[in-house]
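4.2 Preliminary Data

To establish feasibility before requesting continued support, the project team ran the inverse folding procedure on a target of 265 residues. The structure was first converted into the token representation described in Section 3, and no sequence information of any kind was made available to the design step. The complete token record follows.
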């Protein structure tokens, strides 16, 4: 019997694809930028910190990738339209959206002001709605499908006593993922989410300290992670590429927990 083995890497090849990444200079956004560029996509990075944005764009281009920056947050319809317009200037239009922008202000219900609560919902829910709605419209008009990857969190599934704003917002993010997936699936647009546990970033650097407050706090966190360590940014490369590539064409509406087993305990 003659057999042809599948060319596995073709399933993950993003050559010729155009990707837009919000929160492009954050811990997850910058990983997504490097990963998608490394797989062959042209990446458009959106972010509020122009200095970091320019630095990352220059680094990707110097490494042989294709990148450009847009110094905007997805906090208005006008800004969202400008981001998408920039991404569509790449050959082929818009194929991939990665929503890596977001915000957290920890606190219990008694510590959290209405303004703080609203600001977290705005960054994590409203802005996700705005960018996914606009990207979906463009992808449907293009008529060739597309990929959306939304950043959620294990806190969309597991509550925390200082997370009334954040946990609520990420539970809503999970439902946005499912609603958009149901709406866009007939047009071959898949919508999935990546849900991390604690991983290394500027905000969590203190948890990686070898001694002192961070080391003590880390012990408590690790009790909930069966794999026995906190996450590193590169731990998300595989899931980002998978959900952005043809390898996941029959998968939509899923929350992918990249969490070392956190939600299984």
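Position-by-position output of the design step:
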């Amino acid at each position: 019997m003659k057999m042809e083995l599948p060319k596995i890497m073709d399933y993950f090849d993003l050559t010729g694809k155009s990707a837009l990444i919000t929160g492009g200079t954050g811990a997850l956004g910058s990983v997504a930028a490097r990963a998608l560029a490394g797989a062959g996509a042209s990446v458009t990075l959106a972010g509020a910190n122009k200095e970091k944005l320019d630095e990352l764009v220059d680094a990707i281009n110097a490494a042989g990738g294709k990148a450009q920056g847009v110094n905007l947050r997805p906090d208005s319809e006008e800004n969202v339209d400008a981001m998408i317009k920039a991404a569509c200037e790449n050959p082929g239009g818009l194929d991939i959206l990665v929503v890596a922008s977001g915000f957290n202000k920890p606190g219990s219900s008694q510590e959290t002001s209405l303004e703080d609560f609203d600001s977290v919902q705005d960054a994590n829910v409203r802005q996700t709605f705005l960018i996914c709605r606009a990207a979906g419209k463009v992808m449907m008009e293009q008529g060739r499908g597309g990929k959306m990857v939304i950043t959620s969190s294990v806190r969309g599934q597991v509550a925390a006593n200082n997370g009334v704003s954040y946990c609520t917002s990420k539970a809503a993010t999970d439902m946005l993922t499912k609603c958009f997936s149901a709406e866009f699936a007939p047009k071959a647009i898949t919508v999935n989410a990546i849900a991390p546990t604690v991983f290394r970033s500027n905000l969590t650097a203190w948890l990686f300290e070898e001694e002192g407050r961070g080391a003590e706090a880390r012990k408590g966190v690790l009790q909930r992670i069966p794999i026995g360590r906190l996450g590193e940014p590169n731990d998300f490369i595989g899931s980002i590429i998978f959900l952005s590539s043809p390898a996941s064409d029959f998968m939509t509406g899923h929350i992918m927990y990249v969490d070392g087993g956190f939600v299984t305990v």
